Amino acid sequence: MHIKNTWYVAAEPGEVTGGRLVARTILNEPVVIGRTESGKLMALQDRCPHRFMPLSLGRMIGEHLRCAYHGACFDAGGACVTVPGQDLPPQNARVRSYPLVERHGYIWIWMGDPALSADLGSIPGFLFRSDHPEWDGGYGHFESIQAGFRLINDNLIDVTHAEFVHPESFGCEQLRQYRNPVPGDEFVAGRMTYTSGAREITYRMRSLAVSEDAPFYRWMVTQGLKRDSFPQPIDFDMQVDWAAPSFTSFVLNARPAGVPVELGFKVCNMHAVTPESETSSHYFYRSVKDFGDADLTTRFMAGVGAIFSQDQPLLEAQQLRVGAQDLFEQRPISFAGDMLQLKARRMLKDLEEAESAPAR
Amino acid sequence: MHIKNTWYVAAEPGEVTGGRLVARTILNEPVVIGRTESGKLMALQDRCPHRFMPLSLGRMIGEHLRCAYHGACFDAGGACVTVPGQDLPPQNARVRSYPLVERHGYIWIWMGDPALSADLGSIPGFLFRSDHPEWDGGYGHFESIQAGFRLINDNLIDVTHAEFVHPESFGCEQLRQYRNPVPGDEFVAGRMTYTSGAREITYRMRSLAVSEDAPFYRWMVTQGLKRDSFPQPIDFDMQVDWAAPSFTSFVLNARPAGVPVELGFKVCNMHAVTPESETSSHYFYRSVKDFGDADLTTRFMAGVGAIFSQDQPLLEAQQLRVGAQDLFEQRPISFAGDMLQLKARRMLKDLEEAESAPAR
Amino acid sequence: MHIKNTWYVAAEPGEVTGGRLVARTILNEPVVIGRTESGKLMALQDRCPHRFMPLSLGRMIGEHLRCAYHGACFDAGGACVTVPGQDLPPQNARVRSYPLVERHGYIWIWMGDPALSADLGSIPGFLFRSDHPEWDGGYGHFESIQAGFRLINDNLIDVTHAEFVHPESFGCEQLRQYRNPVPGDEFVAGRMTYTSGAREITYRMRSLAVSEDAPFYRWMVTQGLKRDSFPQPIDFDMQVDWAAPSFTSFVLNARPAGVPVELGFKVCNMHAVTPESETSSHYFYRSVKDFGDADLTTRFMAGVGAIFSQDQPLLEAQQLRVGAQDLFEQRPISFAGDMLQLKARRMLKDLEEAESAPAR
């Protein structure tokens, strides 16, 4: 089941420039997304009401999207405005249109009841970090990961997998000590603290004087200091913000041991997962940092893309074993480190139930 | 639903020469088609009754088709005539055979009740054009287009898509004025006239003094006159004959403006669609012309093949959106230009119903 | 339906050396097979009980298999023994483990009731031939043939297909005369004799003074004698042992005509088919011979691999036509030469029924 009355990332802004159209299935519905000549965003059901041709095979002509097959034109609201060779289009010729907004650099879509779309509250504020003018980075996405968004959520909320899946970057043995989070909103050395709300969770961790481990944090210090290497101990902090249904931000702060946290080098990795179907997802990420030049940015984006892509084969293999039924209906064993992940799953269940409640 | 008691194109004649066998699923039934050493055509269910091996993996030996697995041989009527190592084959060892005829250059098959196959009336006479000794051309086919035959029919009956799908060849803005056909059997400038019977439709269109549009018609005049270009106005006529379930012939006549139609250069494109399954089709075409030499014929066939292949990705994308249910059960919007297409759909429905009526 | 309470070949021994893991679906169950550092074999359900990640993506660490995702470790009995970052694993954290044994060079698995696995009687004794110290050869397998094990059984029990499928090797017209087997346990020239038990069949055939046919037998004599060719008549014997559910051994003996059988050159091809699903199979083979040097062995293994691979496309084409329903529920015609094949099918049916009987 999908949560429909919430905003999802539909596209990167660069995907719809120059008249380009994006065809993307979102919550099982085929959608075409584009920008008109005057700059207005448009998202329509990707099926012409005439003969069911995907509108994404057509072309943006001025303010209208023209079907590739018989040239019928549709406006941003989904109304058919012209049919070549006839005076007026049929009155009932229209397709569903979807509300769109631009926030934090992404194009967001509302797949649920349009009457409820005015509330932008479901777009998590913590993604503001990607707007910071002094942070530099880029976008990336995986078009269709064959794993449901819940499995990807589980993966992102869970730092303990990094030791095994990303041993040469994010993974380090220090993460093990964070398997037993305690309530709190401070950074405490060697502990994980967390806070949570109705649809969000934040947790924080701090490791001090790490001498040989934590490769990615060490890389941050080395690059931030413009050194060739930095073998001395480092301190690092991580803050993870998660919001339902599927947004996660990681702020990493790394510095030479003993240096105040305010002087640390920072990276922010933001992840937005948009369900394609029950068992497949679009995975958008944005990574920014506050150090290094444009050349480093290029290498940085290649690097994070490579790290994130380590999860894809695992997630897809996991989905194959999970099958069509939800994982948690199949009685998996849970570990101590799964506490926040289970909390997030419960929030999703509450949101689903609220949405399907008859009283609404 | 398929119409079974009618003749379909099963193969081009050149496909079964030299002992070659054609394996083709027709109306959901796997069929093997071949020609015996003496030249007799044979179409059998493509499944040996012994261990269900496809007979198309076997080989034509004299007058018999020999199974690849255990060497059992079948005659053109489907009877098993020999089993290696045993005196007589089992009495009930036979496979279904299908009536075949050769007409207008094609091998035709009857998938329905064999008792009704003597009536060749469902092979449309208008395909005689491919037999004309002074017209030169060739064959082509698309083996398995992932679109049902009704969608391909819709496409062929509908000239208005050419402006958008084939803008550099058949497409031209002149075709728009023909969206409102009127009854009649004459060529009338700037109008489309049509006539129809129980299972066929013919329509005609004439455009005079076309100055810059209609690229394919202009190409016909240029090539017919053996010029490098012909920028002056041209006149052109098109006559389209359609017959249920899935045959269409286009006769194009193009000439310099003012030249009598009898002196025009002519092209005939014939299309025969054979259902593979409810949502896939074999698409045969034959194109001939009455001008140019053999070298032009080669280029002409490459050109028409390229134009026809522009439809395939659209038809397949459309079929994906239509899905398993018939398009017209899903309440599409129709345009004025769809009138003849809808008439053809109704004829197909009548034929289907007549065939499934209990009284028959 | 599969027979579960019987031993199947799970892997070649060389597949699990050096810490390598084999992921293989057997009787529809995904299994991971490996060998611990101390040499102990391990077969577990290929699904971590925590988040359902395939354990085959993990790694053997000492005596334990470690999950790729969160590092949980499992012992050969399927118990979760450590979870990183927590003192004790959850008590119910375990996966199913499967009994394994090594016999005749293969790793065998028991997919049924473990309580019944002590009886090794279902591992056919006739495979001892692969243990013979003076016979030299090798292993091969086809990972996932898209054909059910019954169709492969039919193929292996049936020598008459060789004339048509392997005409340049095993096939020869002499095999035809063996289509009518008679009871008996002797080799009789020009006849096929057979004996059978509750779950096994043996048949024998002898051809004398074959002058130009039987290419593989002739190759054996040529190679055994270290000649370039041997055009004179040869004698040959074949003994085929089959045991339910899916084991077949062919012992071939070829010699110059008139030479005593004891002096013949011998080849033994052993085939073990392990069901993957109802319609797909793992096909293991082992071939050995008692003549020639190591270089000949290499060529011999390449040759038999090429011959066995001639059956795969036929078996897969056959399975496509047979579909999901069992072949024999679809009333195929049988030939005289199918007698032993039908006998084997009946034995399988009896075993299935015994296994599913309520009294057990």
What's the short story on this structure?
The structure is a homotrimer of 360-residue chains. With 360 residues, chain A is α+β, with helices and mostly antiparallel strands.
Task: Describe what you observe in this structure.
- Three copies of one chain form a homotrimer.
- By secondary structure, chain A is of the alpha+beta class.
- Chain A is built from six helices and 18 strands.
- Chain A has an eight-stranded mixed β-sheet.
- In chain A, helix 1 packs antiparallel against helix 6.
- The first copy, chain A, starts with 6 loop residues before the first strand and ends with a helix.
- Chains in contact: A-B, A-C, B-C.
Which features characterize this protein?
homotrimer, 360 residues, alpha+beta, Rieske Iron-sulfur Protein, Naphthalene 1,2-dioxygenase Alpha Subunit, Chain A, domain 1, eight-stranded mixed sheet, four-stranded antiparallel sheet
List the helices and strands and how they pair.
The structure is a homotrimer of 360-residue chains.
Chain A: E1 7-11, E2 22-26, E3 29-35, E4 41-45, E5 59-61, E6 64-66, E7 73-74, E8 80-82, E9 100-103, E10 106-110, E11 136-145, H1 149-157, H2 162-165, E12 182-183, E13 192-196, E14 200-210, H3 215-224, E15 234-243, E16 247-256, E17 265-277, E18 280-289, H4 294-308, H5 311-322, H6 339-356
Parallel strand pairs in A: 12-13
Antiparallel strand pairs in A: 1-10, 2-3, 3-4, 5-6, 6-7, 7-8, 9-10, 11-18, 13-14, 14-15, 15-16, 16-17, 17-18
Helix pairs in contact in A: 1-6
